[in-house]
Amino acid sequence: MLELKNVSHIYSNGVRALNDVTLSIPKGMFGLLGPNGAGKSTLMRTVATLQTPTSGVIQFDDIDILDDPEALRRRLGYLPQDFGVYPRVSAYDMLDHMAVLKGIGSKGQRKDTVETLLNQVNLWDVRKKAIAGFSGGMRQRFGIAQALIGNPDLIIVDEPTAGLDPEERNRFLNLLAEIGENVVVILSTHIVDDVSDLCPRMAVLVAGQIKLEGSPAELIERARGTIWAKTIERGQLEQYGSDYEVISTRLFAGNTIIHVLSNTDPGNGFEAVDGGLEDVYFSTLAATRRRDTAQAA
Ligand code: ADP
Ligand code: MG
Question: Ligand 1 pocket check: which of 42, 51, 156, 194 to mutate, most ligand atoms within 8 Å of Cβ?
């Protein structure tokens, strides 16, 4: 169990990237969903002990990670959002090198580890090829392999599906799903489907604050009766935007289907829809925008 209590982070330029974040993250896959700039990477780097929060407490099982970052690092696997340099070194040699850095000294043990991981992420056939020549999906699978060195029980993957094509994304998510239920896996993403496909627990982070937390099904249930849909012509969009709280628009066969948020039946040809996680997420973003606009006024 990973626990964050009242974690805030203010960068030296004054940006408050995390604002009093309190979260309990149990074993299994946990989705951290939020738009660009929400603070996801800041949160993940902080948990990975790469930066120290301005205030707050973070505990992983019985480790106080701010007190004893070394203890956390021994149990951590981390795939940063920007993995950075892609060397002209082969996948095999790179992984072997990283295993040395992670403290696997014995040659035999390293061989086992590297070979198992390359098979697990389906890169065995290209193990002798340079990572520099890998596709986005292959790089991310390599990224997972390096994160899994040493059997970590806290795994952090920061926006791993961004930029992957649908097939690569699927393959990558399946790989994550196999990692197991006995470790904590935190997946950050701005893609709602990543979370709904994969995560039994999730939180929505917007502007440094946790806005929602629970299972996708619970959050969807909570939104029941508040999402309404109507098919309109494209030219009517602006009018509807000012009359209703439009949370999403989708083109369908040349028309526009809008979803609006309303606690009561808006009438005017709107029909109740069972909102999905996307509606829940967009409603949360809309509510945050509304509050910010009200504050600015
Ligand atoms: P996300 O990963 O959700 O896109 P980030 O954690 O990268 O969000 O960023 C959160 C906020 O903090 C943004 O406003 C971003 O511009 C700001 N920020 C991130 N890193 C730094 C930094 N090193 N110095 C100053 N501001 C930063
Ligand atoms: Mg990020």
Answer: 42
Give the nearest ligand 1 atom to 190 CA.
3
* Ligand 2 is an ion; residues with CB less than 5 A from it: 40-41, 81
Q: How many whole angstroms from 17 Cα to the centroid of ligand 1? A: 6
Which atom of ligand 1 approaches the CA of 34 most closely? 3
Question: For ligand 1, atom 15, which residue shows the shortest CA distance?
Answer: 37
CB 7 within 8 A of CB 21: yes
CATH of the domain at 176: 3.40.50.300
pLDDT at 97: 93
Whether residue 158 is found in the same domain as residue 271: no
**pLDDT averaged over consecutive 10-residue blocks of the chain (297 residues)?**
98 97 96 97 97 98 97 95 80 95 92 95 95 91 93 95 89 88 94 92 97 94 91 92 92 91 94 91 88 76
Residues 56, 23 within the same domain: yes
Among 188, 213, 238, the domain-final residue is 213
- The CA distance from 293 to 286, in Å, is 10
User: What residues make up the domain containing 130?
Assistant: 2-213
